[in-house]
Amino acid sequence: MASPKLWGVRAALQFLHRTAKLKEESDERRNDETVLRALFATTAEPPDPDDPADRFIDCGPSPPADDVPFIFDYNYEHPYNETEIKICYHTIERNLLDHMDNVFGRVQLLDDIRAGRIAGPNAAEAFFGARRIETNIAFLWAALIERWDLLEALLRLGADLNYHEPAQGLGALHLAAFNNSIASMQFLVAKGCDVNLLQKFYTPLHCAAFGDSAEAALFLIKRGARIDQLTNSVYEVKESALHCAVRANAVNCVKMLVMQGADAHFPDYSAVHLAADLGNAECLRHLLDAKNARVDSKTKEHQYTPLHLAAMGGHAECQEMLIERGADCNEKDHRGQTPLHFAARTQNVDCLELLLGKGAANPNAEDFDRRTPLHAAIGKSSKSSQIIELLILNGANPNVGDQYGYAPLHVAALKGLSECVEALIYYGADVTAKTKCGMTALSIIRKKVPLAFSMFTKKLDNAVSLHHLDSSNELELRLDFKVILQNDHPGEVNFLYTLVEEGYKTVLLHPLCSALLYLKWEKIRKYYLARILFYCIFVMSLSLYVLTALAHHCYNYGKNFNEMKPEDVIELCEKKSILGRVLRDSPFVIEMQWFVLVGITSLEILRKLYGLGGYHSTFQYFSYAENIIEWSIVCSVFVISFIYTGRTYLWQNHIGAFAILLGWTNIMLMVGQLPIFGSYVAMYTRVQSEFAKLLLAYSGLLIGFTLSFCVIFPDSNFFANPFISLISIIVMLSGELNLDILVDDNPDDPHYLLEFSAQVTYVIFVLSVTIILMNLLAGIAVDDIKGLQKTATLSKLVRQTKLISHMEKGLFNGGLPRFFLKRLHVSALVSPKPSKVVLNVKPLNPKETRLPKQIIRDAFEVAQKQKHFQNSMHTPSEGLGYYWFSNDDHKAKYCCLNNESLDMMQEEMGKRNEEIAYLREAVQDMRRALLENQETMQEFMRVLMQNRRGSKC
Questions:
Q1: HSE on the CB side for 628, CA within 13 Å?
Q2: Can you name the residues that pair with 885 across neighbouring β-strands?
Q3: What does DSSP assign to residue 80?
Q4: What are the transmembrane regions (predicted)?
């Protein structure tokens, strides 16, 4: 053993060495910082030419993303237990060793105490020359490692009974309680240690709870330790000994504290909250046995119940205990979210099943943003589709929108989650649902996850099925329109109209959609025909008034016969005809015509105002050309009246003429919307639009000829001014050519050069405009008509869908009395009751006339593909999958399909088969061509050899 003097010298040298080392490290660190600061201040890195940011062209800002930021990100505020200081043996041991090292003490002393090399008899010799702080640390160390035999000796050597380590403020009694060292605690208490001593954060009772030292805790309680004394933390977290025991999952200590009367209910974050949050099920079980335990108490800041915290952590066992003790599964936090929101967000199937089953949680509970648990279930987890299925099967509505109008399908599509989109569509989510900004889920699906839409086409196929009737021994074709009508009552084609608007027009060719459109048109066409009839009466009344009162000035002639000049009298009213005499002698007839016209116009105004309710906005209403035309005609009725001054004027004639033209043109467009005439009007409008484009493209050429003819033929009335000249050019486009303008009959003015230039210009006009341009227009028209003929069926369905949708918006906008609405539901709806959505037809019965033969034939083909199969969806653990089982086989024969759409696979395989067949035919054609070429070459070589032999001879 070294002498005490040597121990002192060694300690001094060790202290000087460590001081010099720390100073050297500090100087080096300061020098490095100075060099780096100077380097960054004096040098600047040149721009990297390969930087991608320097290669972009600045053409304005990018358009905003489809996603709405921070709307669907559920950032749940987690309680503060993650930041609370925890006590464990390793932490305490490390703190004491670091404390000894920081004060430049001898760590060897602590090692010797642990190894037993220092005992009571030789303690004085071992600590000879030691500083008091080393003795104090050794005193704490002895209490930690249960060397109670050294405590008294160290106290005699000068150790402080109440000394505590600086990190957590733990004294000897704290450490002895943590290690359940009853002997050490008895000694320390006997020496005067305070059992409620709180040096920094914890009392000895808290430490006993952290160490699961039930005996030590009971010892302290019996010695006067306050069982509900709170900790003192820099994080402002106040916890009792019961909290500490739960945090350390000290089951024995929790049980003892509850038996000793510890308060399980805490004003803010109780021990029950903490146990549920940490998932300590055994601790929670003992806490719930306490008399004052409350399962529905809420935290102050976030209003979390223990069930919220258990769901947030995914602790199913804790959830089950809370539910069995009567916890309310529909309690809401500060955001209005229930535990079901948290369970759906954490993707925990067990927690979700408990809440929906035993807890009877409301699957459609809305938070303050009107989001349901189904919104929270949308995520990238492999279990998301399973969670969605579980929620919907338990009654969750997949079409509930939040405060922004976003349904779960919008959220899934915006995030690009194809599995979630397919699951939602499979279980009835409305793909036509719109947000408040007018964005449909279908539009997002088309851009983000287009392949997921094949799930809907699969549902359409499944809605067509074949059934054998045993009673009549007939085959029955069943068409279930629920897929289309489930979300649109009473607007039965809103879904199909949205498909058209979003670019999925080809879906209308599906026999289920075609059948619905046919049945719907059978119901609603009488209303459209009545509308056409009424509008025809309106336009005919207007035409009659304009012809009689305005066109021939008969009203003015009858009212002011003596004042009219003979040259102002039109021929009709001047002739001795019966009509002329009636109009001339009885202007009252014309007045009655106008009043009748006003009455009809008033009905038309009421009809237009009623139809206004079928549009979302006034801007949308006037975006349709037919509405602008009809309102213009209505206004013209009052503009061309004689009632204001008692006579008519010439300018009213022109307004009346345009009104008549617009009215009869609108009748043509209305008739063109009928399925039987739709293709013809479509051809006309298509050619008309192409002709307008052609005129716009060649407008420079036409203007050039217009001005040239004004210069070359100044004396011609057809080219007197540019406006008349342009009209003449347009007439000449049709082939109405006038050669008289090229002949000069005045022999006194023979400008041969001018005549030659006129003839050349005229010939160029005939060739380039009349022949080339008009033939080009004819060719374009023929090509467009052929294209329309190819898509005639689809175009007809599209027009029919738009027309029926327009009629439904006008009929069911809510403005009619209830009695009329009931009558409309019966007469205009295919399914007056939402429950009646199935149509049964007999495809093999020749007397079946409820649907066209072609639709029945197409539906029969679809049903044959689905024959003997009934679909059922299940979500395995690997992800979303679909399982099909045969009805004929009583044994479940499952066939698992992967996540890719079956329809897309079949379509792709069909395309590949067509390509293979095409290549096979091409190879065969090439082979035949090669064989023919080979025979030709052989014949050629044979003839060549014969010629050579003949030349040699």
A1: 6
A2: 870
A3: G
A4: 528-551, 627-645, 657-682, 694-714, 760-782
**CB-count burial class (<10 Å; 0-12, 13-18, 19+) for 405:** middle
Instruction: Name 872's bridge partners.
Output: 883
Locus of tokens 């009545």: 530
Q: What are the percentages of helix, strand and coil residues in the chain, rounded to 5?
A: 60, 5, 35
Which alpha helices (H) appear in 289-331, and where do they start and end?
Answer: 306-313, 316-324
Q: What is the pLDDT of residues 579-627, one digit of tens each?
A: 555 555 566 677 788 889 999 999 988 888 887 776 777 787 888 888 8
895 vs 38, more confident: 38
Distance CA 814, CA 81 (A): 56
Q: What's the whole-model pTM score?
A: 0.69
Q: Tell me the C-alpha distance between 490 and 810, whole Å.
A: 12
Q: Which two tokens stand for residue 654?
A: 């022109």
| Residue 11 CA from chain centroid, whole number | 73
State how far the Cα of 497 lies from the Cα of 802, in Å rounded to an integer.
6
Question: Rounded to whole angstroms, how far apart are CA atoms 165 and 179?
Answer: 16
More confident residue, 371 or 65: 371
3-state SS, residue 164: strand
Give the amino acid at 167.
Answer: A
Q: Which two tokens stand for residue 86?
A: 């925890």
In CATH, the number for domain 85-246 is 1.25.40.20
Angstrom distance (rounded) from CA 361 to CA 512: 38
Tens-place pLDDT, residues 705-722: 888 888 887 777 788 888
How many whole angstroms separate alpha carbon 515 and alpha carbon 479?
Answer: 9
pLDDT at 537: 93
The domain limits of the chain are: 1-35, 85-246, 487-672+791-829, 687-777, 907-953
Alpha-carbon span 504 to 450, nearest angstrom: 11
